[in-house]
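Example 326.
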Amino acid sequence: MPQQLYAAVDIGGTKIAAALVDAGGTLLTRAELPTPAKGSAEDVMAVVAALVDSIARDPRWSATAGIGIGSAGPIDPVRGTVSPVNIPGWRDFPLVDHVRELDGVRGDVVLIGDGCAMAAGEHWRGAASGYDNALCLVVSTGVGAGLILDGALRTGPSGNAGHLGHISVDIEGEDCPCGSRGCVEIIASGTSIARWAARNGWRPSFDNVVESADRVAPPTAADIAASARAGDEIALAAFERAGRALAAGIACAAMLVDIRAAVIGGGVAKAGPLLLDPLRRHLTTYASLPFTRDLAILPATLGADAGLIGAAAALAERERGRGGTR
Ligand SMILES: [Zn+2]
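Predicted structure in complex with zinc ion:
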């Protein structure tokens, strides 16, 4: 009998990727296209269809058990719909129904949020493997997360468990677009790091702006990181503040559900020690009770493939849950 394979699709605001994944979590074939983020619902779906068609040409496609989809949120896995903030053409878009109707698609179609997909991927093949209780974070233009508890991904009844980015860590803090205030995301996302630095007097010098030529776009977290490495005090303070907010949020998760590791991925995590050093230091303040003190802070190891591997993992878990082969 041929080895069981899983198809996976990862939908983000800048790119959409698809892959065939084997039962050990290794990518066998992979395809990627830019997201037509300003396009219509049909434009975006056409890219998903083209990518699925591309991986379906692999002769091993006939061994797939179904498709796991990880998507930027909000998502509604119960109805199979997605409304990614950065893809305005998709609002309550019935993605699962559309994927089911694609040529050659067989078996289950499972939808999870991108934070949950990253957590499932890092737990299966990455930095969280070996931990039965872990929180995995994506620190990027936003802050997403997913929870592994008792050895399994926990998405909750609405599919949105682990929304660490919108835990408030400053009850009198800045208003957050979600409606709350002082959320982790409004302090620690890449967008928030750059905005805080600019607001507090940070100005780009010719040396510390990444790809500075002719750029009129606002500064990014990568610009602030380059500046911090050069010793700029405002830039360093912006990362210090972000690390502190993440520490308070992670401590909250540790207090609530007794996690033993927090895995940090996403574009802003590429700042490495600039973000992780203050995070670890402040964690000693906020994770104050003895059972939270040995919490490991680990860099993610799967990079951009975590979402694809995690979407396949979610499908594999569904198959196991109903006694399918694995
Ligand atoms: Zn919020």
